[in-house]
Amino acid sequence: MAVTINVLPYELLVAILEEATRLNIREIPQYTYGLSQAPEPMRRDVRMQRVVRGPVGPDTLRWNATDAIRQVNQAWHDWACRYALASLYISRWRGNERWLESRILTNLHSEPSDTAVYQDPYSSLRKTVRLFSHSAASGLTSCVRRIWLDGYYGAETTALIFELLLQLPALEYLTLPWMALRQGTAEQWSRVLKSTASLELLSVNLTATQIESVKHQHITINPPLASPAVDFHHLTRLKIMGDTNHLGLADEDLVSMSRTAINLHEIHITGTSSPSGISIEGVMALVHASQESLRVLEYTPDLPSSPHLLPPPLIHSHPCVEIQQCHQLRNLTITLPSICTDLFQTPACSHWTGEIQIRTASICRSALSHVSWPNILHHARNLAQSPSTLSIEIHSQIFIFEPRLSRVHGPTTQLHRLVASSATSSSSEEDEMLPSGKMPVEGPQWKPHISETQSSPYSFVTESTFFSSSRPYLDV
């Protein structure tokens, strides 16, 4: 009796189809090309112009590679659609294609010309909306789990974005430009957030032309977040990246989100730099709302070069206290104006098992009278001894403290002076200062007068050597 592949267990059949798709991707074109129109009559140069449009996106490669699989039967068709459409990346065409003259289409020997190839920059978004509008009954819309929309900042494209999103009932992971939060309505956001588990908002600086174009469009600041219908309690992951020079996100937006964002497992806020934008106050509002479920917290802004420009925290409790209330927290990367003395001392930190990286300017002022940096590092070292997977780093000014190994990393030129000033007859500079694999973290230069040392290679010394002569740099 003949046995067909369809009688195999489903898991084995899926593994075979995935391997076949990967092999197909290696065989199909990885780049897109185009040809210009035919040469004009009586023109001596009969060469046609070839256009290289760039690499094919991963989602398009998956769709093309499963073309033959979709035509076998209904079961294979359904699997191929779920595989190819599970993750979509839709980007605005940025006009970086150039005309290229070549006699042979298989080889590219000449340089591209300066003439740009024009096409509708929003064509990918329009075609995707049209595809899902016409294929809602076929089940394609239920295949999309993740979508990333990049480069769409106008009110017209925002309307297209929500027209697309509202057709995707199984959408779980969503990445959007920040302007969608300014231009979308409360009804649109309330419907989109019903199934979304992960939300990423990307901010970028706009050109003067883009800002002028957006200003002429109808924008009502913060309408969705002001509505009680917009509910973030389904979200388990929130990520905000980058900064912008137009209508950027601010603490007020995060405070509005925190009213319903009570089940977040991960909070990532990176690359923010505007003084009027997101600060530690807005971050702590989200942390306080999700303190029972939060597992990962990352707040790494691109801070100004002078410490007095750092926005002061306006929250009633110190950020360290809020962090200690997160009993599910595992990984922490955060920038704080100051660090509390008992951050590593309380039992609330005993569950930390991942990576802990803290950037701070100083110790909390209320504790300077009875606590010093060596005491804080001692408690951090005791905490890091119990779970072997726990890694703690504290960045202060231009120095990096590694409590587990009792090491202090810093610019070689600065550490050289420290070692020289604390060297004894029984020790040498070579024995006490060694090359370090650490690099300075991009961000604040807390001491402007020594910021030139950032370009120096990093070395490390022991804590005892460092603190014996570090008073000009730290309050110890």
> Helix proportion of residues, in percent?
25-40%
- Report the structural category: alpha/beta
On the 0-100 scale, what is the average pLDDT?
Answer: 79
The separation of the N and C termini measures: 83 Å
Largest sheet: 14 strands, mixed
Total of helices: 16
**Portion in strands:** 15-25%
3D shape = globular
Extract low-pLDDT stretches.
305-309, 443-453
Tell me the Rg in angstroms.
28 Å
- Strand tally is 17
Concise summary:
This protein is α/β, with parallel strands linked by helices.
Structure commentary:
The chain is an alpha/beta fold. The chain has 16 helices and 17 strands. The protein has helices spanning 10-27, 58-65, 67-70, 74-85, 123-134, 155-165, 179-183, 186-192, 208-215, 251-258, 280-289, 319-324, 373-385, 412-422, 429-432, 463-467, and strands spanning 31-35, 49-55, 87-91, 99-101, 146-150, 173-177, 198-202, 237-241, 266-270, 296-300, 331-339, 355-363, 391-396, 399-402, 407-411, 434-435, 458-462. The protein has a 14-stranded mixed β-sheet with strand order 3-5-6-7-8-9-10-11-12-13-14-15-17-16. A 3-stranded antiparallel β-sheet has the order 1-2-4, with no helix packed on it. Helix 2 runs antiparallel to helix 4 (74-85) and helix 10 packs parallel to helix 11. The N and C termini lie far apart (83 Å). Mean pLDDT is 79; it is low at 305-309 and 443-453.
